[in-house]
Amino acid sequence: MAGLELLYSCVAGSICCPQDAVVCFVHWEIIKRGYKCLGSGDEIRNGDKKSELLPTGWNSSKELYTLRYKSNDDKSDVLVKAITVDSSLIFNLMDSSTEQVSDLTVNVSDYVHAEHLQTFESVFKNTEDLSQKVKNQLLPSVPAPRKKEKKSRRETSDESQPDRDPLRIPSRHPQTSRQPNWPDPMAPFAAGGADLDPFGGRGGGGMIVDPLRAGFPRSGFDPSSGIPGVLPPGAVPPGARFDPFGPVGRHRPGPDPDHMPPPGYDDMFM
């Protein structure tokens, strides 16, 4: 309820009935909406100035209250009237910019202690309920004050990293490297799985069956562990297709037929 106590204290000396207190409360809600009061009465007067306070003579008539408001950006004018009917106040609001009209009926005794009009701490009751009624029934056509536009992700990122140099490669704030999410090469029926489940995050698909991914028993050779003297460990991703470009291992079992030429190898007539 910030601001209401200060407002009420400024006009407490002129409040003499429960209806005055309700009008003061509604005035405060309109001010919070981003408007300032121009004065009382239907007619525009020379020298009207926007103010958060209630104007002089705002409650001169206990049967009819009339207040004029203008938005802080001067794009909207609002006329508010409150008519006393028995123990109720009937509010009527017209927005001149949209020509929309709204109304609210308030049972005064539900929200004001008539015996405590001069004491702010005791004068109001059920303020949350009254505030919701004013917002939902009387002020739905009144635009709320504009909020500052949200900054883009790039602007926010640049402000959070003031020493970031976009012309420098790599960045001064390198991101932590992440290991690729390789699919399990031993998963049964993995071949073509990405084609059947394009949103499963399994990576690229294809219709060429890879023996290392087809679910068949694999030999003991795993290229991802490296080839001594040829490839370091990790050069081949786990489960990737790999065609050896040389003999696997330095020592193959059995004699090498290239070690000794066959008899008569240099006889051109053989």
From TrEMBL:
Coiled coil: none annotated. Residues 152-167 have a biased composition (Basic and acidic residues). Gene3D superfamilies: 3.40.1000.30. Residues 14-141 form the PI31 proteasome regulator N-terminal domain. GO terms for molecular function: endopeptidase inhibitor activity; proteasome binding. It is found in: Cytoplasm; Endoplasmic reticulum. Residues 134-203, 220-270 are annotated as: Disordered. Residues 174-247 form the PI31 proteasome regulator C-terminal domain. InterPro entries: PI31-like, PI31_Prot_C, PI31_Prot_N. GO terms for biological process: proteasome-mediated ubiquitin-dependent protein catabolic process. Keywords: Acetylation, Cytoplasm, Endoplasmic reticulum, Methylation, Phosphoprotein, Proteasome. GO terms for cellular component: endoplasmic reticulum; proteasome complex. Plays an important role in control of proteasome function. Inhibits the hydrolysis of protein and peptide substrates by the 20S proteasome. Also inhibits the activation of the proteasome by the proteasome regulatory proteins PA700 and PA28. Belongs to the proteasome inhibitor PI31 family. PANTHER family: PROTEASOME INHIBITOR (PTHR13266), PROTEASOME INHIBITOR PI31 SUBUNIT (PTHR13266:SF1). This is Proteasome inhibitor PI31 subunit. It comes from Esox lucius (Northern pike). The gene is PSMF1.
